Amino acid sequence: MPRLAGVALLATGLVGGSAAVAVAAPRSATGSTVAEVPPQTTPGPCAYTETPDEPPARPVPLPPDPRRTPDHGTVRVTLRTKHGPIGLTLDREQAPCTVQSFLHLARHRFYDRTPCHRLTAYPTLSVLQCGDPSGTGEGGPGYRYADELPTDLPPAPTDPTGARRVYARGLLAMANAGPDTNGSQFFLVYADSALRPNYTVFGEVDAAGLATLDRIAAGGIAPTPEDPAPVDGAPALPVEIRRAVRGR
Questions:
Q1: Where is the PPIase cyclophilin-type domain positioned along the sequence (predicted)?
Q2: What CATH code would you report for 41-52+74-149+170-224+239-248?
């Protein structure tokens, strides 16, 4: 599982995808090089683009990408876990392409029976990360799309440089592996965190969901032989999204 460097998101960040691997060009039976097929990209404004070097953790088509992406109103989604429900309110105006993709994945049951593979407990980073059916932190939906970054987050008082912003308790945001690499992984903020504003915020967690997150966070992070008291790793209380359903 990708790691953070120190207490702030630095090189790897909240990662949702593995590194690209160089592949030799395929050849025909006669030995001539076969032209590579370019990745498919949807024709609408969201431009969801296949990632052949990062195949989907579960089969799922590219999302719909209408010319007029819905960009008003909110949508409720509930993540059902054995620790309790996590209710989400998705904001289409804040991040229309992200909400469209998330609903698409939920509709195709991409998130069902999916673990939340990562819990962090740094003083400046307190999140639960989910959305990878493989549970490794490397899996995604087989496509990526551009950031819809927040512009109204307050400066983090713990950062004298002013570079980081407060991702407040209750925010729902996309994990990524760098600019414009959004896929399926997302994180739920259970305590105010200080991050560079490089992560798309697309909704909020409701009060019942925050109570569920608090129970998970109170369980701590599973120790490993290398680190008996980790602040970043798998939750000690295993978390699985049993169903992701639209509505309450």
A1: 84-246
A2: 2.40.100.10
